[in-house]
Each structure stands twice: as C-alpha cells, then as structure tokens.
Specification:
The chain is α+β, with helices and mostly antiparallel strands and 352 residues long. It has 2 domains: 237 residues, Zn peptidases (Aminopeptidase), CATH 3.40.630.10; 86 residues, Elongation Factor Tu (Ef-tu), domain 3, CATH 2.40.30.40. 28% of the residues lie in helices and 26% in strands. Helix 1 runs antiparallel to helix 5, helix 5 crosses helix 9 and helix 7 packs across helix 9.
C-alpha cells in the first residue's frame, strides 16, 4: 500500500468507534471515499455508502465492512467517584484489567484506568466479570466524577498502531477497520478500472452488538451480491488449542469462507478471480454461521447472494490484534478484480 493508503488505515485504527458511537470513524471513512466515489451518503443510524455507478447495465455488488469496535460504557458512578463498567460487544474480561482507557464524554475525552487489585492482595487466579470491574479517573467523589462523565458515555482501551517485524502490524480495532479500509480500496480500484457493475462500498454500524447496521443496509440497498469483509482467526500462534485450529495463518492471503451463508456461485467466482490474478487465498469452513454481517445480509429481501472474506488476525478482541499488511493488500486487489470480472448479465443464481 502507498503512503496515502497507509495513512488512511492508521487514521481508521486511531479513531475510536465503539458500537453505537461510530460517528468519528465514519467521518474519516467518508472523507476518504469522497475522493473517488460518484456519490457518498449516510442513513439515519450512520451506515455509510459510497457508490461507483459503473459504465454499463451490469449488476450491483456491495463491498462491506463494519465500522464499529468493541468497548465499554459507563454503567454507573458510585459515591467515591469510581466508574462501573458495562460491555459494548464481546469485550474480553481477561485482558481489560490494568488497561488505560478513554471515556468519550460530552465535553471531551476523560482518561482513566481499569483497576486491578495487586497480585499480593488477591486470589492469583481471580478473573472478575466486566460488570465487577471499575474505572479510576482519579477523582475523590461521585459529585466530581459526574461533572466529568455521565452514565451511557462510551469508552475504549487506549492503544496505538505499532509496526512489528517486516509487514506485521499490531493495533486495537483491526476488527474491523481492515474491512472498511478494504471496502474503500476495492471501490477505488473498481472506479479506476471503470467497471461495468455498480459497486457500493459500505461501512456499517453496530455489527458487534447484533449485525444491526447490516440488517438496515441489506434491506435498503438490496444489491445483487454482497462481499462482506471481516477479520478471521489466524490460528498459527502457539496458544491456539489444536482442536480449534483452521490452518488459517498470517501472510497466506485472505480466507474465502465456504458453507452456510456463503453463496456457492460467489465462492467459485472469487476462487477463479484469485487464481487468474495470482492472488494468494486460503479456504475456511463455515458450517453454520459466519459471525459477520453476511449472516444478516444474505437473508434480506428474499435472499442476497453473499460471501464472507476473512483477513487473518491474531488475538481478536484484544488491544494487540496482529495482521499482515500483505494479506490486506491482496484482499483489496481481490475485491477490485472481482468487481472488474463481473459479467453484465451475471445473476449469481444457483443452477439447479
């Protein structure tokens, strides 16, 4: 990726965007796609859609990723000024304690730390639920705390984008800033190629709390096909249990999911495009649900052919998610080539 694309990725990763509070991240995304899209619009809940109109009468395809990330919310404030937590999405109680957090309050950012009782004073194996944990913002009274924050304010773990060796990158929120980045870059490639198909790049909201934005977009947009980009587990680190390994690894290319919501015509089309373009891919079995926006989109409007493309990601739902940027570049190329390869009369229908 070039310098501008890398800056866009880092801007997405550094912009807090917890579920239900995605506005800042969506603004970063829409500002970027306005440079090459024919139209950019948002809906009532903040789903963002960019459009390349296409040069002919071909079908429409949506390239989607979700803008939101997991986080926490101010559930209560006690009399001593300690903030009680609630989870936004699948926050992991085993990595939350001892973290720096930022509470995104009405009057600005408020720093805090999630308290952790010293190892000398607790049961060594104690793991408290999120609702039992607290944030210390340094105040001495509930009155002072309420001057700074309010119940319902979201918060995110403080993190940074950090380069590891070679093409490896670590950050909070790879899930799923990589998806919105790839959707935007896939649209840019389609626009530069002036493809026949109408191509939508979509950045959805509230995936982590029930695929809610995708339900809205799937119904409203009703594309002929949808390619849903999200992270998938790279199971190549030493702590992954052997019985949970899928063979997906960093640097092996994006993973094409097979089974469940994943439409067989799209699966084979994507494999053919990858082979013809010499783009490395991996395969992943999905017996029932994908756990992504594809599960919401594929049943909308009587059925929208959908496919989940996964970017290998280590340590999902932690502040140190790790990807390989060569996989991400390959993913954007695959999306652009797929859009360019769509026939004008393609229906994506299963042949029975």
């Amino acid at each position: 990726m070039n310098e501008r694309q890398r800056t866009f990725l880092e801007d997405l990763l550094e912009t807090p965007s917890p579920s239900g509070f995605e506005t800042r991240g969506q603004r970063v995304w829409t500002d970027y796609v306005e440079g090459f899209a024919d139209e950019v619009r948002t809906d009532s809940y903040g789903n963002a859609i960019a459009v390349h109109e296409g040069s002919g009468d071909g079908p429409s395809v949506a390239l989607t990723g979700h803008a939101d990330e997991i986080g926490f919310v101010v559930r209560d404030i006690d009399g001593d000024g300690f903030v009680r937590l609630g989870a936004i999405g699948g926050a992991d109680k085993t990595v939350s304690r001892g973290q720096h957090v930022t509470i995104h309050a009405a009057n600005g950012s408020v720093p805090g730390v999630i308290g952790q009782t010293a190892i000398h004073l607790r049961d060594e194996h104690e793991t408290a639920d999120i609702e039992e944990q607290h944030v210390d913002i340094g105040v001495e009274s509930g009155e002072r705390a309420r001057e700074l924050v309010a119940v319902g304010d979201p918060m995110t773990v403080e993190g940074r984008v950090r380069e590891l060796d070679d093409t490896r990158l670590a950050a909070r929120g790879m899930d799923n800033r990589i998806g919105t980045w790839a959707a935007a870059e896939g649209l840019r490639r389609a626009s530069e190629a002036d493809v026949d198909a109408t191509v939508y790049a979509v950045s959805t909201v509230q995936e982590e709390v029930g695929l809610q934005g995708a339900k809205m977009v799937g119904f409203d947009l009703a594309p002929d096909a949808a390619i849903v980009v999200d992270v998938t587990h790279a199971t190549d680190d030493p702590q992954t249990p052997a019985n949970r390994s899928t063979g997906v690894e960093l640097g092996g290319g994006p993973a094409i999911a097979r089974g469940g919501a994943n439409h067989p015509v799209l699966v084979e089309s994507m494999r053919d495009v990858a082979a013809a373009s010499e783009i490395p891919i991996q395969l992943q079995a999905t017996g029932s649900r994908t756990g992504t926006d594809a599960d919401a989109i594929f049943t909308a409007r009587g059925g929208i052919p959908s496919l989940n493309l996964g970017l290998p990601n280590r340590y999902m739902h932690t502040p140190v998610e790790v990807i390989d940027t060569t996989d991400l570049d390959a993913l954007a190329d695959l999306l652009g080539r797929f859009a360019a390869d769509i026939d004008a009369d393609e229906t994506f229908a299963v042949d029975i």
